[in-house]
């Protein structure tokens, strides 16, 4: 980690977009303007931590305000505050307070922040978590997610059961394919049907997912497992940062439970990510009704996932 010493007086906070400033923050997909407009066309308010000396944005947060509640994000897995590595620690702390005071002036009564997994950026997110708690925020929801390091083949470290299922799927002739984005409807409806069999649903409608994919086609990818030309399992992935792909939706036909297709699918996805230079595959959280889903969490860990905390913070301003 490279540390940068900056004079505190070089910094300013603003709720007006600094038109001529460069953006130093490596913003995640769900904080991009176009994605926010997919979530809601209106109602957004933004705040920026500005380095005046170098005329660059080193911190930001975008909040949707409705009925005196400010949320980041509105309809996405996460968003929250984001900072460049050069943003001074003290200014990050003060920036949170500035945002709170500005929202009070606008009669906002409550703020909700849904953060990414801590290990998306452990340095930034650890500081943010502690600073929010220092400012009196509370954790409304605590979840555990899992990240897989894509630099090495995960199957080399499988325990006996996972290794056996991987070999069984390979011997059965399962074929992994990267699918064209034009297969979105087929993939979505397949996953939805698999979820309905298990009494689960999907967080997005097909219409909303289509809009997201059409807006960010380079961020979304579709994959399938086939046996005798029949779709057995499918995945929708989203590249949420330069180095992280989020395994957004996945499921398999329960007729093939004996092959545990998700094991084979995950191995192939990690290989695909490694070839594309992606550092981490985010397997998502493992929770149900604000409690750990122990079976799912254990499965993700046994696949090679490293646990990482994911918090939703709230604060009452009135």
TrEMBL record:
Pfam families: Acetyltransf_6 (PF13480). InterPro entries: Acyl_CoA_acyltransferase (IPR016181), BioF2-like_GNAT_dom (IPR038740). It comes from the Bacteria. It comes from Pseudochryseolinea flava. Residues 209-288 form the BioF2-like acetyltransferase domain. This is BioF2-like acetyltransferase domain-containing protein.
């Amino acid at each position: 980690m490279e540390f940068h010493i900056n004079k505190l007086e070089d910094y300013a906070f603003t709720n007006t977009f600094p038109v001529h400033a460069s953006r130093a923050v490596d913003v995640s997909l769900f904080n991009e303007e176009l994605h926010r407009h997919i979530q809601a066309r209106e109602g957004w308010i933004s705040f920026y931590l500005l380095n005046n000396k170098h005329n660059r944005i080193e911190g930001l947060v975008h909040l949707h305000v409705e009925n005196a509640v400010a949320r980041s994000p509105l309809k996405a897995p996460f968003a929250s505050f984001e900072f460049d590595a050069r943003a001074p620690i003290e200014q990050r702390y003060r920036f949170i307070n500035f945002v709170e005071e500005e929202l009070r002036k606008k009669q906002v009564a409550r703020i909700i922040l849904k953060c990414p997994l801590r290990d998306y950026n452990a340095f930034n997110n650890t500081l943010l978590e502690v600073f929010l708690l220092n400012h009196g925020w509370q954790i409304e929801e605590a979840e555990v997610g899992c990240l897989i390091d894509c630099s090495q083949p995960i199957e080399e470290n499988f325990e006996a059961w996972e290794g056996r299922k991987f070999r069984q799927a390979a011997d059965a002739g399962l074929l992994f394919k990267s699918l064209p984005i034009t297969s979105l409807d087929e993939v979505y409806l397949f996953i939805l049907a698999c979820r309905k069999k298990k009494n689960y649903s999907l967080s997005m409608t097909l219409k909303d997912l289509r809009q997201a994919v059409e807006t960010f086609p380079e961020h979304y990818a579709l994959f399938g497992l086939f046996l005798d030309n029949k779709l057995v399992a499918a995945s929708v992935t989203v590249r949420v940062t330069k180095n992280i792909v989020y395994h957004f939706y996945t499921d398999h036909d329960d007729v093939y439970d004996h092959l545990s297709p998700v094991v084979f699918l995950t191995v192939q996805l990690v290989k695909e990510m490694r070839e594309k230079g992606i550092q981490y595959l985010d397997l998502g959280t493992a929770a149900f009704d604000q409690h750990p889903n122990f079976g799912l969490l254990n499965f993700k860990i046994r696949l090679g996932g490293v646990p990482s905390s994911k918090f939703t913070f709230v604060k009452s301003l009135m």
